Amino acid sequence: MTISTDTIAAIATAIVPEQGSVGIVRVSGPEAVAIARQLFHAPGQQPWESHRILYGTVRHPESRQVIDEALLLLMLAPRSYTREDVVEFHCHGGIMPVQQVLQLCIAAGARLAQPGEFSLRAFLNGRLDLTQAESIADLVSARSPQAAQFALAGLQGKLAQPIRQLRSTCIDILAEIEARIDFEEDLPPLDEADITRQLQTVLEEVNQILATADRGELLRTGLKVAIVGRPNVGKSSLLNAWSRSDRAIVTDLPGTTRDVVESHLVVGGIPIQVLDTAGIRETADQVEKIGVERSRLAAQTADLILLTIDAQAGWTAADQEIYDQVRDRPLILVINKIDLVEAKTAEQFKIQNLKFKIPLTVSTAAALNQGIDALEAAILNTVQAGKLQAANLDLAINQRQAAALTQAQQSLQQVQVTIANQLPLDFWTIDLRSAIQSLGQILGEEATESVLDQVFSRFCIGK
Question: Quick one: pLDDT band at residue 13, thresholds 50, 70, 90?
Fold first, then answer.
């Protein structure tokens, strides 16, 4: 992909009416400073120097009408985010000031930036590698402090560094092998044992990084948890106690919840989308029937089911029917209203539960805010049982990076097979080159234009 030589502009901050105090219009490219000089009037003797903030007004270049009182930030190449000349107009927040400034920039010769185009230019100009660029998008969209920390680690090069080292090792091995092919008579025999050892070390590190893929995906997308059960077992009370809010209506009447109620939480650094579903039962009420169908759909698409039963009623035929519908999903049995029964009754439920092969059981008294800590611990245990936290690393790869790493893993394994079968050295180089190419794709050194389009299209405009 070639580096664009035109000048781009975009609004770089979220604009919400009456919500933001500052709005930023960002301009990058060879004409950025010239456009700023057309539009920005800085009174006095303020120097137009790099990494200076100027105070003044944005004015229409022809009518000289004042559009806004603003600050202008200058960042000249190469000391900028894109390694081009960059200027930022820091305007008053709101819709009109930033939109008018943006339109003036476009009229002065800039064009509207595409999603992620500023970061794309930073990548193409060598300011960032592809893993760092992706980490920027992850940091912007992070839904938990832990997800933000993983994204920041990627931005600081904690993924790029080991990948770059692994690729360098593979290139060194390839050079050793090709040297023996071209100059076999002039060099000592290839140390096959050393090559095998190095390849095994590289493969082990690839496997270790690859083990973070599920963890990374979990932190980015979160976990969808559906609270299901028959009517009036306390599902809405459980949601309210867990989210510390009154998101769901709670009454003694069965069938109060008619639709799926949603809440967002963070448990152990993992974003969790909690769905309180309508009580699943046969009903003639058309509105409730729609809610029940939506509940069944939510249960089938959830990552984890909290099957909630009433401790007073025990395990009923209706509970069994619901269990039969969701038994193929990851499941935690929640025995609610435990405060209304004797302790030995709760133990009987746990013993009875074993025959249903539900691995985790939690007792709660949602109306009293009891058992929430145990519920969260059970959810985290379920996550760990799925080996989503298999690697103790301070990084987490995404799906694109995992696909490239998987290809590198397979290529390295095939090199090992080739060596074990005592095939000629030419055959060793085929899969070794493939591994080098796959590792390069992660960093962006071997990335195609379609890959770059896929990566940067998910960025917001202005970033």
Answer: confident
